[in-house]
Automatic annotation (TrEMBL):
It comes from Streptomyces polyasparticus. Residues 11-240 form the Aspartate/glutamate/uridylate kinase domain. Its EC number is 2.7.2.11. Keywords: Amino-acid biosynthesis, ATP-binding, Cytoplasm, Kinase, Nucleotide-binding, Proline biosynthesis, Transferase. It is an enzyme of class 2 (transferase). This is Glutamate 5-kinase. InterPro entries: AceGlu_kinase-like_sf, Asp/Glu/Uridylate_kinase, Glu/AcGlu_kinase, Glu_5kinase, Glu_5kinase/COase_Synthase, Glutamate_5-kinase_CS. Pfam families: AA_kinase (PF00696).
């Protein structure tokens, strides 16, 4: 058992669009409820706080956007879709957590707010957490200028984990672990453990998801970079699939474990 994960009290969880998207379009309420079932039970443990970084707003918005009316460019369409989808996404989470009498609070952030106004952002999140609220965090895709964006929620989650001095960061995607080749490649093997000295090639060919929706902005490269950044700051990281979230949060030997750098 990964004791540091099992006993973690300050937890940051990031979930990607591919874990939440419905097979047709939009969001899957069932998938959101299943994830919340796991998070709510973990939160119920004594002195445990969970910050959720969730993608999915663009997927939710596109399902309700009149794409027959053309946009000037794809970036503008994504921003418009995010504007529609953010409310829908947080509403789904609010309904799901309410089944456990738990309250959520939407937090939309830019890179500037996390990096250059870190103290203020930390105070806001700490206030929510101390009042037993689950922060549901996403990048402000609609309002942030291009030079104020992280570009993916993996990086945002790593920064928040460092900001909150989290005990663990859980990165959930559509694959069960990091692989030494694309998972569909014959002979591809999972990488179960990554130490600070491990050299990992940061390329999309190193490993890739098996159910890419085309709506997410982060690939395996962003996840590895985020995991390595958090681990370098002394935070253990588990990279696995949303289907294994319960085991990951319980400290089971699932997914890829990034060992924290010693201090």
């Amino acid at each position: 058992m990964r004791t540091t994960v099992a006993t973690a009290r300050q937890i940051v969880v990031k979930v990607g669009t591919s874990c939440l998207a419905a097979e047709g379009s939009g969001l899957s309420v069932d998938r959101i409820n299943t994830l919340v079932d796991v998070l709510a039970v973990r939160r119920a443990q004594p002195e445990t706080q969970v910050t959720l970084v969730s993608s999915g707003a663009v997927a939710a918005g596109l399902a309700h956007l009149d794409i027959a009316c053309p946009f000037d460019d794809a970036a503008l369409m994504r921003r418009a879709a995010a504007g529609i989808g953010q409310g829908m996404l947080v509403s789904c989470y609010a309904a799901a957590f309410s089944r456990y009498s738990q309250t959520v609070g939407q937090v939309l952030l830019t890179a500037d707010e996390v990096i250059h106004r870190a103290d203020e952002t930390r105070r806001v999140l700490t206030q929510l957490l101390s009042r037993d609220v689950v922060p549901v965090v996403n990048e402000n895709d609609t309002g942030a200028a291009r030079d104020q964006r992280f570009g993916d929620n993996d990086s945002l989650a790593a920064h928040l984990a460092i900001l909150l001095r989290a005990d663990v960061l859980i990165l959930l995607s559509d694959v069960d672990a990091l692989y030494d080749a694309p998972p569909s490649t014959p002979g591809a093997s999972p990488v179960w453990s990554v130490h600070p000295s491990t050299q990992l090639p940061l390329s999309e060919g190193y490993a890739s998801g098996s159910a890419d929706t085309g709506l997410g902005t982060g690939g395996i490269t962003s996840k590895v970079k985020a995991a390595c950044a958090a681990a370098a700051a002394g935070i253990p990281v588990v990279l696995t699939s949303a289907k294994l979230a319960e085991g990951a949060l319980s400290g089971d030997e699932v997914g890829t474990y990034f060992h924290p750098a010693p201090f």
